[in-house]
Amino acid sequence: MVNGDGAHEHTEETDSKQDGNGEADGGEESNEQEVIVIQDTGFTVKIQAPGTEPFDLQVSPQEMVQEIHQVLMDREDTCHRTCFSLQLDGNVLDNFAELKSIEGLQEGSVLKVVEEPYTVREARIHVRHIRDLLKSLDPSDAYNGVDCNSLSFLSIFTDGDLGETGKRKKKGNEMEQIDCTPPEHILPGSKERPLVPLQPQNKDWKPMQCLKVLTMSGWNPPPGNRKMHGDLMYLYIVTVEERHVSVTASTRGFYLNQSTTYTFNPKPANPSFLSHSLVELLSQISPAFKKNFTALQKKRVQRHPFERIATPFQVYSWTAPQVDHAMDCVRAEDAYTSRLGYEEHIPGQTRDWNEELQTTRELPRKNLPERLLRERAIFKVHSDFAAAATRGAMAVIDGNVMAINPGEETRMQMFIWNNIFFSLGFDVRDHYRELGGDAAAHAAPTNDLNGVRAYSGVDVEGLYTLGTVVVDYRGYRVTAQSIIPGILEREQEQSVIYGSIDFGKTVVSHGKYLELLEKTSRPLKVQRHSVLNEKNDTVELCSSVECKGIIGNDGRHYILDLLRTFPPDLNFLPVDGVELSPECQRLGFPASVCCCLTLLLFLVFLFRYLLFMKMAALQLMQHKANRDSNKTDTPAITETSETLTESKGPLEGKELEESIPGLAQAKELAETLVAEDGSSIDPKSREVVLNACKAVGSISDTAFDIRFNPDIFSPGVRFPEESADDIQKQKQLLKDAAAFLVSCQVPTLVKDCLDHSALPMDGASLTEALHQRGINVRYLGTVLEFMEKTPAKAQLEHTSRLGVELSALSAAVSHFLNCFLSSFPDAVAHLPPDELVSRRKNRKRRNRVPGGGDNTAWASLTPSELWKNIASEAQKKFQSKLILIKEYNFDSRHKPAFTEEDILNIFPVVKHVNPKATDAFHFFQSGQAKVQQGFLKEGCELINEALNLFNNVYGAMHVEICSCLRLLARLNYILGDHPEALSNQQKAVLMSERVLGIEHPNTIQEYMHLALYCFANNQLSTALKLLYRARYLMLLICGEDHPEMALLDSNIGLVLHGVMEYDLSLRFLENALTINTKYHGPRSLKVALSHHLVARVYESKAEFRSALQHEKEGYTIYKNQMGEAHEKTKESSEYLKYLTQQAVALQRTMNEIYKNGSNASIMPLKFTAPSMATILDQLNIINGIIFIPLSPKDLENLKAEVQRRQQLQELGKGEEPAEDQKDGLCWMSHKACGPESRAV
Fold first, then answer.
1. Domains in the chain, ordered, with CATH?
2. How do residues 890-918 score in pLDDT, each as one tens digit?
3. Coil vs helix vs strand at 503
4. What is this structure's pTM?
């Protein structure tokens, strides 16, 4: 779980902080005892290793012995040891035992590090580890996207760890150190967008050369007679001093032998320098190695742990510097063996992925410790499987894996590698002929993966899904799946006992599968339904017919082919004789294998539930009113599902609630009705519920229950006549869902973009914004069309400009990029003709690449053809016309911008299941709820608890841990603990860079938050560097014309104002004012604040006329928007008076000088340099943090109000009592905390 001492320190740190905070929220399902189990206090043991002084190590009872091994292999003084055991009183400790289970291990125990004999496997691990230590500061693995290494550049801008520098820096001399001038390319209005600063070179990365060569010797493997002498393998080493040596790895350790490049003499040299560790041997024979290796390890351990820990999934970088290719024995070995024999250091065997994936799901989950252990195991196996599947898919496309059906056409071939089954995204058996052929087959794997995600999320005991990863690489789509035991030994027809293998012609069912799938039907909103098979018999299903049930040889019930888990999207599936809503008809979408997003179905469900409640409540109120006036007729509900889709969306519900008195009470009554089974309800009330159920399309007459039939409109699926009514209802429900998406969800997204609760910056964040609202990316054209018709469309420009990412062997890619981006009109394939010829000849001799052949059609592609293809593809996929906003001008129109040398590598795009830490997430949500209620300290404790549990499941690196750290930092900051806020936010930035990417929109946000906390800690130059970095990244991904740029420029302008760089400050603040005016409208309060900030800088420059002009603008906005009596308007009015006085005083002084020359008696003028406290207050305000000062009287009132609420709660629902007093009041805006937390 933990990788290296950095992570170890991190877990200790959170553990020690958590002591005593074990009490969970009273309403939390996980009870206190469960949490306290996790909080077992740590203890200290003494470690005694050969050649070093004994040292103390803080450990926790839940840790395994193996984790201490990891710590020792990462510590500076013991890092060169890999083959050792830990012994307590002479007894060897089991690596996989938990510390609490070891008898006699207690506070102060001495653990001895005992060197053990090597095996071939241990010797290989040792050499690999030494190689990793030698390359520990080298970023090449991160650039190449291997071994879950990824880039982080924060330390370059903070000059190391912020915590330490914070203590070193003195307040007084901070001002002199600051160089405020930003690079030219990030100034407002600059048109330059250089790529080199994206990856600044760290001076630490200059290689400290310890060895020239470390590689496997050509004399490997040892001959039989030498094996009996204990020889395991031979190494060839060249030291920095140019000494060439041959080293034997034996069971006793490493020693010099007498072999040379051409003569084999395995006898020990004299002296042989026998050492248990290779580092000890090399330190004896090379002084340069000893000196540089020591310095290298010092630098390595000084780096922040989060810069070194592996990420759970690989993150790739799209740019990299050209670096010299270096000799690397470990990489060479990996390439030759395909890492099969040494997969995760398991010798000579491959992992049974299916068994591992399913066994982890079967682990017990009764209490919190069991659930944590289970989730940790599931997460670890999934991340390992995703990595192995990605390597295998790349090997398949690169032609390194033999097909299991080599005689068939390449597109039909299937592969097995490392116990994983690989298939290509082609329509090999005409399955998808009517749905779009290869295009449909290309889309199907992602739908299947979404189905796997859905069923894995529901996590029903006894129902199993396959490990599934979808990889796009070099233009191919590969599906990687774990293998059901026994599936390859029998025909599919014999295996499938549930579902259909021919799109619904023959259908079978099975009682056990129906029972298991029934448990998933409510959470997934899937309706149990009947279909007809080829003999016209009725077959009952609880999924789509496509879903197949197979019992493996291991007796487990597997489901696969889950591509139709969710019903079809009717907007993209025109069906004969089906009338769609006018909006959908107008859009005229094409046919495809398009399914609704899970979230859309859930939103439809919630929307219908709201309508159901309203209708039941209104009926009950009418019923009550009628009864009161002795009338007995109950008006029938006349609204039908058609009227539901015409409604204006969720807002209407709110308005209705406000407009009808007593509706809330009626809704409560309705809720009690639908919660019961209907038996004890009086007939009138039952009739009300029945009518409401009918009107909203509920499948039950006594309670609200909406589910969708995934087989509706599926070609080839037939339904029994007796269910005709139900089928009709289901068809209507799907039509309503399609209309709901177009008429409600798309306008909601546009509204959210207008009021800035959604602020997409790039293609990825736009996709996320769409998905969060249940909208597929294929609706992009619809969204753009809706934006065009919006009156405030200028305020949506930042969204409509975002692109959908396009991905396309170095010559082909460089040619593609030239056609795509270059201004050069006659882009010709940049490849010498002789190389084309030789490539053709070579390809015939090699293993055929899928879809291979002599395919050089790309070489004749022209820019106009490419853009025509892209435009037609965009029209087909997104119903959107492409507009060329900017013709990139790379270099010149006379030569192509890219050559094949510019293309360094091609990386895969990988989609996989993301297992969740459910308990940790509940704690996180409870913490957020507390923060929203204003109980910040209690919220902080719960978030800390969540962080602890996230670490337990995910290890130290994960995107959810990043969110946790961000919120913790914000809470620390508000509660006045600025150093702790800085520490947590630094971790959040590092983690965001590592797990999301160095230019991800979240990373930019994290940099901005960190800059604020640096400023609050008096680290002004660091704050500026961080803000400049954030601005550079934002310019790179979305340009200057974006609402978020206004916030960033306001931050930069304020900090520059604080360090008295007034002219620079004005450039940024005036740019922020322009952007705010464009995106928020000239009458917005944000614009008023912008005017005020600009006025303050002009005041500091003594340009009072300009200051007055801006402050007047701000005052007018405040007066119009908030009235003259509002505090803000009064503040602005006071400031205007002050500025006027200053302007008059200045004018008098100038007049005096003109009049009396040098004899003038000059009144001293007040030129106010801004105080840091004032600047910090302004920074807090623009970043959405407003501290509300409370007088003693206010505090008394607040206390009384909280106690009153407490009594009400106790009387009402007996919920947990509120705190005696909130932790000092503060308001955090929605923007400030990120989308996941809005706090008052």
1. 43-117 (3.10.20.90), 350-483 (no CATH), 492-565 (no CATH)
2. 555 566 777 777 778 889 999 999 999 99
3. coil
4. 0.82
